[in-house]
Design brief:
Layout lengths: L5 H5 L18 E5 L8 H13 L4 E3 L1 H4 L3 H12 L4 E4 L6 E3 H12 L4 E4 L5 E3 L3 E8 L4 E7 L16
Length: 164
């Protein structure tokens, strides 16, 4: 230490200097929850990059690299969920998502895992600032639209194409 430093003048020489060993601290585990049909879109890469930028030291779990089928996801999801520190979710370009994302978000809420909604601009919003409107009750499943609470809701029964 520098002799001019007040710490150098006041530290008791009999007390060893300690440093924090960061190698013993596990990185945060962040899960990306989004519709499967956007995995290969440039938008997906842009939004995952925003997650990596916000949490540069974290382990980012992307389902597109974890699971090869819906059956595998259903079997392994509970053990994946148990490892998570945070879940970040987003819908397709218009905010739509289906039952898989819904299950992941609801399971994370139930387990009190912090949730963040990532919007088109790459801004993170606390889950409590979002609204999830059920927009389709058809077979084979349901569809929802996620938006910020300041966005007008989708009219029930409105005809809206899913995808994109």
């Amino acid at each position: 230490m520098n002799e001019a430093s007040p710490v150098a003048k006041t530290r008791d020489a009999s007390v060893p200097e300690r440093t924090l060993d960061m190698t013993s601290i596990a990185p945060a585990v962040i899960y990306v929850s989004c519709p499967m049909h956007i995995y290969n879109q440039p938008r997906y890469g842009r939004l995952v990059a925003a997650i990596r930028e916000r949490w540069p030291e974290a382990v980012i779990l992307e389902p597109k690299h974890l699971y090869t089928s819906n059956g595998e996801w259903l079997a392994r999801w509970p053990s994946t969920l148990a490892t998570l520190d945070t879940l970040v979710y987003f819908g397709d370009a218009r905010g739509f998502y289906l039952s898989g994302v819904r299950k992941e978000v609801e399971d994370a809420r139930r387990n009190r895992i912090p949730l963040w909604f990532l919007d088109e601009a790459g801004t993170f919003h606390p889950d409590g600032d979002t609204r999830h409107d059920l927009i389709c009750r058809g077979l084979p499943g349901r569809a929802w639209r996620v938006s910020l609470r300041t966005t007008p809701p989708v009219a029930r029964g409105a005809r809206i194409a899913i995808g994109g």
